[in-house]
Amino acid sequence: MRAALTPFVWIAVGALGAVALGVVATTRGEPINSIWLVAAAVCVYAIAFRFYAKFIAAKVMALDDRRATPAERLRNGHDFEPTNKWIVLGHHFAAIAGPGPLVGPTLAAQFGYLPGTIWLVFGAVLGGCVQDFVILFASMRRDGKSLGEMARDEIGPVGGLTALLTVLLIMVILLGVVALVVVNALRGSPWGTFTILATMPIAIFMGLYLRYWRPGKVLEVSLIGFVLVVASILGGQAVSESPALAPWFDYGAMALALGVIVYGFAASALPVWLLLAPRDYLSTFVKLGVVLLLGVGILFVQPTLELPAFTRFVDGTGPIFAGKIFPFCFITIACGAVSGFHSLISSGTTPKLIAREGHARQVGYGAMALESYVGIMALIAACALQPGVFFAVNSPEGVVGRTPEAAVATITAWGYPVTVEQMSTLATQVGETTLMHRTGGAPSLALGMAHIFSRVGGVERFIGFWYHFAIMFEALFILTIIDAGTRVGRFMLQDLLGHVYKPLGRTSWMPGVIGASAAIVGAWGYFLVQGVRDPLGGINSLWPLFGISNQLLAAVALCVATTILVKMHRWKYMWVTCAPLAWLVVVTYTASYQKIFSDAPRIGFLAQARALQASIDSSSVAAAQVPATRTLIFNNQLDAVLTGVFVVLVTLILADSIRVWVGILRGQREARVSEAPFVLTQLRAEDL
Amino acid sequence: MSALRTFGRLVLGILRELADENAYARHLARHGEAPSPAAWRRFTEERLREKYSRPKCC
């Protein structure tokens, strides 16, 4: 009976999805309820998971449940351990979900809700989910090898080294840009700054609690930590309202940036158990809780999308970042649609936990679909704001004008009415002095989430608490990424430098540790300071750079995936990985070309450098500002060079991969896969 | 009711995995140790070194 009904259920899901997509795609000139976006996205994910992912599992990769996975063969009770598939799914989702799927869609909302929605949904099911799934499968068949190791083994030594260098450079950009998001969210905000500073002693208390008082009781201490963090949000309100205390926590962007840099260096040198690990536990649980709460909140409140399907900024003149939908929407939303970084997670811990090969579909494909849905929720939260408010929060001074009057006049003239009083009232409601020019996406996302959360409770006067709760949630895991990323960057740099001078490669040699830490912090700190000084808000140049690098890493991962399919003699299914690879190559190469060579100063790094040089030459820059302007010129040239380096690195790995594919397809090269040998599983269903 | 219990167990299982409590239990079983501050320190040294030698996702 159930089997007979199944086709009808899928027909109903397909019909609902088609209707919802139709409504989302064709509604113009009137607000649309967000529930249509939810229905369209969920139906597409369900159909893609049921049919496309199953096709990939059965035909392309031929997953075999009789084959013992590394979790079973190499079981050591430590990192290799066969684990329930839902637990692995939760673990994998928590590992891939970062600030990217929240911030990217919020920024891309400047084009309207439709471009971001389409890319999030279809980019994920045809690209991101496929990448995560295939890389997870490949790593699982190779005893949990990393992406770099697989690139070296399957493509060649050039591929391996290129992957390592690409990851290191992406880390530097990533850390710089996420630090900028935090700085922009906290500047001039005593409430937010107090709350975030309070999370540090709370995390240290948690670390000491775990180490000395209640070893192993991570859930217990995380619950205590959560209560303390909520108390610190309430305390932050009291601080911000106190004329005596508020100035102690009121900092400008540069002071906060320097604080984050010093923090990054110090935190990466502290023992992991003291600050990083306890905060990471807390951040993971808060992240999952907030995602769940946002999902429930959207279903309950069903907010109306106030931003239109398309804004006037599809022409490339957007205030948040410059450039047309193609290619910039597709690099602004990286995580949430396709994220190269996920391939590092899919070839990390996760393949060592999978008990049955068939579980890779739920874990690899399913977790990425969930992440994409998080991106949809962030887009809904951002688009639920009044368009004028959205642009007033996200537009930099250099584009809309320094004073609130000038900014609202510019934004209103664009056709998105907003008033100074409206912004002032909103800022007062959330306990801030101003919400203008808060670029980076975090404050507008927090505002959207706060509106939804406060309406769930039915008590809208708590909007200030919810705004700062959302800021705390974003800052908490961004600081964890900064701390952990600096450490990992240091290890990678030491690994590279160890080839030049052996002691530098030893992670216990203090001069090497301090030098490498300083180099990594200095590198991302440079980009952070660059972003703070940028009159266009920093996000305009740094987020596209991050998006390009992340998508190029995805191209590297898809090169590895395609090479593996070719070596498995699955060339008739090469399109499964080649189609997203081709799309990413076109998108990233176009975006890179435009970011380097476009004649529009807000898009092209070199054009911006030329425009600044021209302003010095024509003496339109005050003498006192000339050194700062020269620094801006250098920064733009540096960003252009870096974008070029990314493209060269990926071109190298792409050319190397194509050489391997052609060699195998022509029969000039042996198609030898480096899979672990087949061993029959001994696990029984009840063991899982 | 039993479905709810199963769901609750699953959620707790995910939370314990994310909290490394399951991994700690496996560590104790593998080494035949009882929970103690020293065992936890040995476990975390190994676990956290590996965990934070990999990049965290964006």
Summarize the structure.
By secondary structure, chain A is an all-alpha fold. Helices cover 70% and strands 1% of the residues of chain A.
Shape of chain A: globular
Please give the count of helices of chain A: 26
Identify the biggest protein-protein contact and residues per side: A-B, 56 and 38 residues
* Portion of residues within helices of chain B: over 70%
Describe the protein's architecture and organization:
- The complex is a heterodimer of chains A (688) and B (58).
- With 688 residues, chain A is an all-alpha fold.
- Chain A has one domain.
- In chain A, 70% of the residues lie in helices and 1% in strands.
- Chain A contains 26 helices and two strands.
- Chain A has helices at residues 2-26, 35-60, 70-73, 85-96, 100-108, 113-140, 147-154, 157-186, 190-213, 218-241, 253-269, 276-301, 325-332, 341-346, 359-383, 387-394, 397-400, 404-413, 420-429, 442-457, 463-497, 510-533, 539-567, 575-597, 605-617, 626-665; strands at residues 32-33, 304-305.
- In chain A, strands 1-2 form a two-stranded antiparallel sheet.
- In chain A, α9 packs antiparallel against α10, α12 (276-301) crosses α20 and α13 (325-332) packs across α23.
- The longest helix of chain A has 40 residues, at 626-665.
- Chain A starts with a helix and ends in a 23-residue tail after the last helix.
- The mean pLDDT of chain A is 93.
- Chain B is mainly α.
- Chain B has one domain.
- Helices cover 74% and strands 0% of the residues of chain B.
- Chain B contains three helices and no strands.
- The longest helix of chain B is centred in the N-terminal third of the chain and has 17 residues, at 2-18.
- Chain B is flat.
- At the A-B interface, α4, α8, α9, α10 and α12 of A face α1, α2 and α3 of B.
